[in-house]
Amino acid sequence: MEHTTRAQFPQARPRRLRRTENLRRMVRETHLRTDGFIYPVFVVPGTDVHEEITSMPGVYHQSIDRVVEDAREVADLGIPAMLLFGLPPFKDAEASQAMAVDGIVQQALRAIKRAAPSLVLIADTCLCEYTSHGHCGVLGAAGQEGFIDNDLSLELMSRTAVSQAEAGADIVAPSDMLDGRVGAIRAALDARGLHDTLIMSYAAKYASAFYGPFRDAADSAPQFGDRRGYQMDPPNGREAVREVGYDLAEGADIVMVKPALPYLDVVHAVKTAYPDVPLAAYNVSGEYSMLKAAVANGWLDERRAVMEALTGIVRAGADMIITYYAKDVARWLRDDDTSHTATSNGAFRVGPSHA
Ligand code: PBG
User: Which end of the chain is least crowded, N or C, by CB within 10 Å?
Assistant: First the structure.
């Protein structure tokens, strides 16, 4: 080890290890694996609805029947988990549809569980898609615009999580960034005997511009103000480690950093501080749409750019990636796998073969 790092030219020729694809495969440090993918979907009321979201090409608003078909495809591709967002038939100040027994996500969870029982179903637990004002909790006293009432909102978050778990969610994922919500949800789940429901907390979620396309997709843009009173301030990295610590102390099973690409230092810091805790990174809508836009203009090679970006997220320390690209990448990885096996046994080798 010592002498390798000290060796000077011409002893050190790192390029020797890059000469062929098989050599590169042998020394590759990071592997993008379908095992770590989580595929997000947007469920809407109705039947046979499958409408592309303008700012997110390849991502759709789907009614439950179409989401069920999608779930079968996701399972067939070997992707272990799906993350559900819902667009309710109506919104109100208390987000009643977020926790309704027959809410859009609750119905979808039951239907997908029947169709693809082995898929891990994750419900995004938040109120912003369900409140008429678009904030992630209930509003505080007048004059506190943007400051939602933390402790009042916890009660609604807990009821939402319980109703999602009872409808079949294996994991609930609180994405509101209110204080104390992991502990409140854990207590509420346990009180209902839902000890096996996991909590994946959006532990370090930043007040990011990169959620723009998602807010069109989920119709969840705040009607006034912004989310800076509860989501993290982008310049803060050390604070993320503290946030993760609180969520773990409150019982989070998996923690998440979000967005992913502009926050790889945070992903790395969290993995370094908590190496034994499962860590997810959310490659959010804006990260997806940027790539799609560049690809549509012919400025980037989609497959190479996407694989490189997602590999970077794994290299930074993420064990799991939530990405709208999950199905594409699962297909590409499957194709790569067969091409390696094919060349290693020589069956599909192309070109002239001379002795
Ligand atoms: C809900 C929520 C948001 C995202 C996931 N859950 C939006 C927000 O906080 O405004 C963003 C996901 C994405 O951009 O892909 N709170």
Answer: C
CA geometry: angle at 122 spanning 158 and 162, to 5°? 25
Q: Which amino acids bring their CB within 6 angstroms of ligand 1?
A: 124, 126, 128, 136, 175, 211, 214-215, 220, 227, 284-285
Give 243-298 pLDDT, tens digit per residue. Answer: 999 999 999 999 999 999 999 999 999 999 999 999 999 999 999 999 999 999 99
Q: Measured between alpha carbons, how far is 281 from 267 in angstroms, rounded to an integer? A: 7
**pLDDT of the residue at 2:** 55
At 77-109, the pLDDT tens digits run 999 999 999 999 999 999 999 999 999 999 999
Provide CB contacts within 8 A for 116, sequence distance 6+. 68, 71, 72, 74, 75
Using H for helix, E for strand and C for coil, what is the string for 280-320?
EEEECHHHHHHHHHHHHCCCCCHHHHHHHHHHHHHHHCCCE
Instruction: Write out the H or E segment, with its range, that includes residue 74.
Output: helix 64-76
The answer to whether residue 205 is catalytic is: yes
Residue from 133, 201, 220 whose mutation best tests the ligand 1 pocket (most atoms within 8 A of CB): 220
Local confidence band at 71 (pLDDT 50, 70, 90 cut-offs): very high
Annotated active-site residue 113? The verdict is: no
Question: What CATH number has the domain spanning 29-341?
Answer: 3.20.20.70
